[in-house]
Specification:
Length: about 100
């Protein structure tokens, strides 16, 4: 049985001439999940084998903790530096979903 795949690549600042920051999220045919984040000089990759039940849970925990850390930092920046506009988790998720599904 063929397993579902996932392959999304996105620039974090698509209209910026100064930034090459991006991410590449994929699940390959062999069940390997990779999330790679790049800036101009460095990259970091999270990787799990989704054929292994323990690694599925590890992948979920890694991604959840990473997403929560990003949202915590976003809220800190808004509260301490940008007090003009606040984003809810729902609005960010919907905004990102709509930009990916185009």
């Amino acid at each position: 049985m063929e397993k579902p795949t996932y392959n999304i690549k996105k620039f974090l600042l698509s209209d910026s001439p100064r930034s090459m920051s991006c991410y590449h999220a994929k699940v390959m045919e062999d069940g390997i999940m990779k999330l790679t984040m790049h800036d101009c000089k460095h990259s970091i990759q999270l990787k799990n084998d989704l054929n292994n039940p323990e690694e599925i849970q590890e992948a979920i925990e890694k991604l959840s903790n990473f997403a929560n850390g990003i949202l915590d930092l976003l809220h800190f920046i808004q509260d301490e530096y940008d007090q003009k506009e606040t984003y809810t988790i729902e609005s960010l998720v919907l905004q990102n979903y709509h930009s990916i599904s185009k």
